[in-house]
Write a structure and sequence with these properties.
By secondary structure, this protein is of the alpha/beta class. Helix content is 30%, strand content 28%. It has helices at 40-53, 67-74, 81-87, 96-99, 109-123, 143-159, 178-182; strands at 8-9, 24-25, 29-34, 58-62, 90-94, 127-131, 163-169, 185-194, 197-207, 217-222, 225-231. It is globular, with a radius of gyration of 17 Å.
């Protein structure tokens, strides 16, 4: 039996790491999913900024939005985020221009992997966010081939030593896809009705090699970004 210490890294989300034994397992891939407006992209940027603060090289790969606009949105929580961009610790990779051009086609996992390998060689990347996962195309409709391609991507990411967050929209809570089963963890963001108002919550559905909470916890936008509060009663 192979045993050993599990190395973890902080997400940078106040109140979240204690729910997952102190942080994410290093060099693994995690799915961040939930409905529109639930805080998924902010979660991803906050995770990257935490790494940049620690001197790591991190990458935000955007497949739809202009990544500079995403950083402008995050700036209200941490104006120093632009310092990390200017120093090259936080790399903004805009694949959206290639995806949505007049003759462009959605990228495939294999083409994104080529770009990531180039970034690793050039900048020794530690953390990565792909936003959104749903903009990536599969060259086949066969479920087994889809699963094999995604599994190859995730294994390669782990071998490169990259801890990654894959962001995906989720509107149907009864539908699970290949990535839910293959990633090392699934973190779901929720909306729920609290009195007459809609509130946000976060829930860990899956976390390999980790004892984790399964309850829904309140998720709020504080002055410095996302903050996890107590359990939803």
């Amino acid at each position: 039996m192979i045993t050993g210490r599990v190395e973890r890294i902080s997400t940078g989300i106040e109140g979240f790491d204690p729910l997952i034994e102190g942080g994410l397992v290093k060099s693994k891939s995690y799915l961040i999913t939930g409905p529109p407006g639930s805080g998924k992209t902010t979660f991803g940027i906050q995770f990257l900024v935490e790494g940049a603060k620690r001197g790591e090289k991190v990458v935000y790969i955007s497949l739809i939005q202009d990544p500079e606009e995403v950083i402008k949105d995050y700036e209200r929580f941490d104006p120093s985020v632009w310092n990390y961009v200017q120093k090259g610790n936080l790399i903004l990779y805009d694949l959206g221009k290639e995806v949505w051009g007049p003759t462009a086609k959605p990228p495939q996992w294999s083409s994104i992997m080529v770009r990531i390998k180039d970034l690793v060689r050039e900048s020794n990347i530690n953390r990565l966010v792909i936003d959104p996962l749903t903009a990536i195309d599969f060259p086949t409709s066969d479920p087994a081939e889809k699963r094999a391609e995604l599994a190859t991507f995730l294994r390669t990411m782990s071998a490169l030593g990259i801890t990654s967050l894959l962001i995906a929209e989720l509107t149907d809570l009864d539908r699970y896809s290949e990535e839910h089963y293959l990633v090392d963890g699934v973190i779901m963001l929720h909306y729920y009705l609290e009195g007459n108002d809609m509130a946000r919550a976060i829930q860990v559905l899956k976390m390999r090699r980790t004892r984790h909470e399964t309850k829904m916890y309140r998720l709020e936008f504080g002055p410095k970004g996302l903050v996890v509060r107590g359990p939803v009663l």
